[in-house]
Each structure stands twice: as structure tokens, then as C-alpha cells.
Specification:
binds pyridoxal-5'-phosphate; 408 residues; three-stranded antiparallel beta sheet; seven-stranded mixed beta sheet; alpha/beta
């Protein structure tokens, strides 16, 4: 089994993905572990099977011991992200004064979209993409316009150009909700690609909101480019959070960052938005960015090993499912069309379509492995499943063996 080999400092033993047993994980009460019965291996929602990074756990324990559970104050979170962004991504002109704490990335995205678009305006997304990009935008009375990814799974400038043109035709103030890096494909957009986005957005008068929640999770071989460091992105926004990379989704706090020409817009963010993040969330996310780098590096080594392990497992047990190694995230986007599974999406008697259909339903029913069903990611998703490999090599191996058995 491919797992990080032992090293002189014994770091293999500290791969965070190998520290929890299945029994311990099953005691969790979060959605990943409670949505399905206990015989199901859950490789679906983007939670990781890791203990908390020790500095984060220590900071939370300290806060609880002190009863430090009041309201949040100060700019420590933004400062921690600014330092991390400069060190890891070379983002040197990050300005704490150009930021605002928001409850989480998706609430931040909705609030930023409210600032720069009006009800009925269009929000462009590159499908297939993280499903709440559809739901949350629609619930905020904006219209989703899709710019499908190209066959290479990367953003397609021609599709974006066309989508921006359509968005502009129907709405007065369109926006583009960029997923950087991209969930579910794990593509890490290159600087040139982002420059093309900025040029197109400028030409069509489209404001860009860049969701950078997966940014710390870029794997060896790729380099993350913060959208706001790209020429032409001065009037854009970014959203950053420790939620994915340090597994803190339950501790709400994210940061909205404005480009220099978007600061005045950010200042119009209603006051109540900054009341959403929890103080414990701010503490945890701040410490993650400030002190969680060494733990993150161990995690990235473990994810890199799992990324390689998954290639071996799929080749052996599911050879008809091609594998495109993700460049970032811990998500693998698997094209299951060759399996020939019925991709019909059953609806209940109120017309609501099930979240689990096609190959994901087959794997759930016959392998007892829960994956995210591709159809909920929009155009281009049907026939695919998204597999979360932020788990132990043992669970990953067992899951893919079961999946292989289910289609034999
Ligand atoms: C691209 C993307 N954005 C946002 C989120 C959700 O983040 P939050 O819980 O901070 O809203 C996720 C969660 O998986 C995600 O993948």
C-alpha cells in the first residue's frame, strides 16, 4: 500500500490521515459520518478523517478553559492569512484593511454577490462545480449562467466569453463566481488562465468573486495563484478560510478580501454579516494559518500519497474509470460513464430529484461506499462521481476494492 515511507525524523508516523481508527471516526456526529448507516464507508462530503492540528486543538482548549467564548474582536485572523499568503503564495500586497470577516465562504460569496449584482442578475459558474454555487446563488434571487469546463477539465475561455456575453445581455451587473482551485476536478488554475479570466471579465463588465477555500490544499506539482495577484483583477474579491485545509467547517469563520478597486464595495457589506462568525471559529482559523503550516505539510504529504494510491487502486479494481490526478484539493472526479450505469435521476412525488443517482447510487447500494453524485455539480456532471480521498490509506483501499466488486 502506498503510504509515506518512514523518514529520519519519523514524520511518516504523523501523517494526520492515519491517526484515527474507523471506530473513532464513527463516533463523530458530523454529516459525513451520520448521513448513511454504519456499514457505509463515507467518501463524499468534504470533511477530512484527521484529528485537529495540535496548535488548533490547544488554542480551542485554552479558550474553553478560560471561558473565552464571547464576541470576536480585532484583525488577528486577517493578519494570519496575510502572513500565510505572503509566505506560501507570494501575495505581497495583501491589505488587512481591505478585508472583512464573514461567517463562512458560501455566506461570504452570497453577501459579496449581493454587493455587486442586483436581483435577477446573472452569476456565471464553470460547470461542473461545487453544488451550492447553484443553490445559494439561486436562493439569493440571482440567475446561474453556466460556462462549462473544457474536455481537459480546465476553464474554457470561449465558453466564458460566451457566458459573460449572455450574462451581460440579460442582467445589468453580472458576476463570475470562480472556484480557485476548482471543486470537483481538483484543477489548480494557472496564472495565464486567470489573466485570461480577468481580461474577459473586464471586457464584459463582469465582477469576479474568487472562492479560494481549497488554496492551501495544492499538491506537489502545482502552484496556487491568488486571483487578486493577477493583473486586471483589481476590482475583484477573494474568499479565504482554513475550513477545508484544517477541517474546521464546524467552526465558522472566513475572510472576504477586496482588490484595491473593490474596497468601497466591501465597505457596504451590512454590519450583521460580521456578526455571523463565531469567536471560537476565528480563534481556530487564526491559529491554523499562523501555526498550522507544519501540520499542513504533513497532511499534504499524506494526500499526495493517497492521490498516488488511488491511481493504483483504480487501475486494478476499476480499470474502465479513467483517473485524472487532481492538482489540488482532496477530491477525485471520476468519469464512470464507461460503467454503463443508468443515470436517470429519480424524483420523489413532489418532484425533488435525489442527490444520489447513477453511479453514486450503484456504489452506495452495492459497495456500501458513499460518494458525491456527479449530477448535482451541474452540466457535465452526470455519469461522474466525486471521491473524497482525505481518509486513511486503509479506508481508501477498502472502498475502491468494494467499488470494483460492485461492478464486476
Ligand atoms: C469550493 C467550496 N466553497 C465553499 C465550501 C464551503 O465552505 P464554507 O463551509 O466555508 O461555506 C466548500 C466546501 O466543501 C467548497 O468546496
Amino acid at each position: 500500500m502506498a503510504s509515506p515511507g518512514p523518514s529520519a525524523d519519523g514524520s511518516a508516523a504523523r501523517n494526520p490521515l492515519t491517526l484515527l481508527t474507523l471506530d473513532a471516526l464513527r463516533q463523530r456526529t458530523s454529516v459525513k459520518w451520520r448521513m448513511f448507516p454504519p456499514d457505509v464507508l463515507p467518501l463524499w462530503v468534504a470533511e477530512m478523517d484527521v484529528p485537529l492540528a495540535p496548535p488548533v486543538a490547544d488554542a480551542l482548549r485554552r479558550a474553553v478553559d478560560l471561558g473565552d467564548t464571547g464576541y470576536s474582536y480585532g484583525t488577528a485572523y486577517a493578519e494570519a492569512i496575510g502572513d500565510f499568503a505572503a509566505r506560501r503564495w507570494g501575495w505581497r500586497d495583501f491589505r488587512v484593511a481591505h478585508t472583512s470577516v464573514v461567517p463562512d465562504v458560501m455566506m461570504g460569496a452570497v453577501e459579496l454577490l449581493r454587493l455587486v449584482t442586483d436581483p435577477g442578475d446573472a452569476v456565471v459558474v464553470c460547470s461542473p462545480v461545487y453544488p451550492p454555487f447553484y443553490a445559494f446563488v439561486t436562493h439569493a434571487d440571482r440567475r446561474v449562467v453556466e460556462a462549462p469546463l473544457g474536455p481537459d477539465r480546465r476553464m474554457d475561455p470561449a465558453a466564458l466569453d460566451e457566458a459573460f456575453r449572455r450574462a451581460r445581455a440579460h442582467g445589468r451587473r453580472p458576476a463570475f463566481l470562480l472556484c480557485n482551485p476548482h471543486n470537483p476536478t481538483g484543477v489548480v488554475h494557472r496564472r495565464e488562465e486567470l489573466e485570461t479570466v480577468a481580461a474577459l471579465a473586464d471586457r464584459h463588465g463582469v465582477r469576479v468573486v474568487s472562492d479560494e477555500i481549497h488554496a492551501p490544499l495544492v499538491l506537489p506539482g502545482a502552484q496556487f495563484t491568488p486571483y487578486l495577484t493577477v493583473a486586471g483583477a483589481e476590482n475583484a474579491f477573494a474568499l479565504v478560510s482554513a475550513s477545508k485545509a484544517w477541517n474546521l467547517a464546524g467552526l465558522k469563520a472566513a475572510l472576504a478580501v477586496a482588490g484595491p478597486q473593490a474596497v468601497a464595495d466591501l465597505r457596504r457589506m451590512p454590519e450583521e454579516v460580521s456578526h455571523g462568525p463565531s469567536h471560537l471559529g476565528v480563534i481556530a482559523h487564526t491559529v491554523a494559518f499562523r501555526e498550522g503550516g507544519p501540520w499542513l505539510d504533513l497532511l499534504l504529504d499524506g494526500l499526495d500519497a493517497n492521490r498516488a494510491l488511488l491511481a493504483t487502486l483504480l487501475a486494478k479494481h476499476l480499470p474502465s474509470v479513467p483517473y485524472h490526478r487532481p492538482e489540488g484539493t482532496y477530491l477525485a472526479w471520476l468519469d464512470c460513464t464507461e460503467l454503463g450505469v443508468d443515470t436517470e435521476q429519480p424524483a420523489d412525488d413532489t418532484g425533488v430529484v435525489s442527490d444520489v443517482a447513477g453511479p453514486a447510487k450503484l456504489f452506495l447500494d452495492h459497495a456500501r461506499v458513499a460518494l458525491s453524485s456527479g449530477h448535482v455539480f451541474g452540466t457535465g456532471g452526470t455519469g461522474f462521481v466525486r471521491l473524497n480521498f482525505a481518509t486513511s490509506p486503509a479506508i481508501l483501499t477498502e472502498a475502491v476494492i468494494r467499488m470494483g466488486d460492485a461492478v464486476r
